[in-house]
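DATA CLASS: polypeptide
GOAL: derive C-alpha cells

***
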Amino acid sequence: MSIVLTEKLLIYVTVIANRSIKVGMIVQIYEIQDQWQAEGCIKEDVDHIGSVLLSQEEWRQPSVKEVIDLSKGTKVENSLLPLFGDPETIGLCLDYYRPHYLHLCGSLTDHQGSPVELEPIAEFQHSLKEKFPQVGIIRTIPVPEPGIMKGFPALEIARALEPASDLFLIDTWREQEPVEGFIGITGSPVDRELAEELVRRSGIPVILAGGLSPENVFETLMIARPYGADTCTHTNMVERDGRAVRFQKDFKRVEAFVNEVRRADRAIREKVQ
C-alpha cells in the first residue's frame, strides 16, 4: 500500500491483499443482503458493498452469497460483516463466501470507554491473514459522538490493530451499543476532530462512517478527508413514522450520497493544487 499526502490526506493509492487499486475517495454501502439491492448499488457507482451475517447458527445465507458472487464480476468490491466472533465459524464463512474483505466490528472497549485487551484481537486477525491472504481485513475503530468523552482512546486502539488490518472504519461508540458487543449501527455522527486526527495519523486507509447522509457527508469529508465514506441507516427506506427500514435502500438517497462524496473528492483535490 502507498499513500500520497499533500498537507492532509489528498489521494490514497492503495493495493490491498495484492488485489485492488483505488484512487480517490470510495463509497461503501451497508447492509446489502440480496441481489436486487446489490444491482441497485452497482448501478449507482458504489465502490464497496457490505453484507451482514446476523446469526452464527445461520451463517450460510444463499442470498448473501449471490451478492458477493455478483459483485465479483464488476469493479465493485464486497465486504462481509459477521455479528458473531467465533473464530471457527468465521473461518468457515471466509471459505464459503470468499469475500474481498472481512469486516470485524466487535467491541474494543468496556462501557466506560477503556480498551479491552487488544493483543489477542490482533493475533486473531494475523491468523486470518495467514490463512486467507486474499481477504483484506476491515477493522472498525470506535469514536464517540461529539462532546461525549474527552481522552477517548481511539488512537491507542488504532495503533495496536493497524499492523493486523488493511482498512480501518471509524464508527460511532456508545456506552450502550444498539447491538450488544458490536460497534456502530447508531445513525449518529462521530466526533469530527478525533476522526480527522485518526485519519491523519493512520498508516492504512480509513473509511468514515457514523451517521453520514447525503445532507452532511460533503461537509464532514472536507474536514476529515478519509479514504472513503460509509453509509447504512441514512440511505435506507423509511417508514411513515420516520424509522429506517433495515436492508431496504432508497436508491435516490444512495445516488445523492455518491454524488456528494464525488463532489467532496473533487473539491479536496482542487483545494490542494
Observations:
- The CA atoms of residues 35 and 67 lie 5 Å apart.
